[in-house]
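[Automated response] Your request has been received and processed.

Submitted sequence:
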Amino acid sequence: MKLLSIAVPCYNSEAYVERCLQSLLVGGDRVEIIVVNDGSKDRTQAIAEEYVKKYPDIVKLVNQENGGHGEAVNTGLKNASGLYFKVVDSDDKVDKDAMAKILDLLEEYSREDNMLDMLLANYVYDKEGVKNKKVMKYNHMIPTDRVIGWEDVKHVAKGHYILMHSVIYRTQVLRDCNLVLPKHTFYVDNIFVYNPLPYIKRFYYVDVDFYLYYIGREDQSVNEQVMIKRIDQQIKVNKIMLEQYNVFDESVITSKKLRKYMYQYLEIVTTVSTVLLLRSGTKENLLKKKDLWNYIKETDVTLYKKLRRGFIGIVMNLPGKVGRKIAVTGYRIVQKIYGFN
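Generated structure:
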């Protein structure tokens, strides 16, 4: 059995997939790299086949009809044999020194009686044209270099969240929570991170800059104009997360700090949905914004009241053009602080 399975979802990735794979190969025989070719029409499959030939005990290729990023992650998980599971997008890469350190750590926690449910590391916004890259750390909120539970978390900070880039899950945890991401839908990384959280009992944060998250391409899914065009998919993900758990149910989410964290995660995802709808400024999308908030009210009135009465909820729902401008300006300030796209 491999120590770490790494799924690499690929769609027309010929320009950058080799850079990604080269960074992962430092793991040697301890990793399996599952390249999921999601119906690419360029040389992605041919490039992956070359790596399978060269590294048959490390690289695996799975071809499928196009199903989107989420379906590619599903396929990676189905084919994973490692104790732990990581997703690395084909246009991103990892730091080789950090990779070696993380694998040593996972090796230390590879026995059945001492396995981790989740491992966290830093990620870097590798933004095109920016010299000083923004590093997202967790040391202000999570103790480093020891096994902890949710009650050991020091501070649950707004605007600083666990992302797919920073997380490695125990493979069985993802299977236990029946994780299945929707097909032909962007932004499912939020579901990937959010759904397993109540199943996480033992986790560890290592303060190394592991994942280099490339942002800056005009066609990238996190480009704001692209997100506005795909707003229905953002709303779909938002609703799936809202439906998944009652974040105030102490019998399901036993940790107070985890309940707070999951609530704030819902809050930020709903804020992003709302701001994008406001930014577009069309009558259709302003109606969708109203419909989203009505949906929250109908699905979970307690959650709705807490979201709506909080500072962010008040700002996001200020009336008129002036109110929309204030909401968007506030979001821009947060963007600048945290350096995201």
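Summary generated for your ticket: The chain has a mean pLDDT of 90. The CA atoms of residues 87 and 225 lie 25 Å apart.
If you did not submit this request, please reply to this message.
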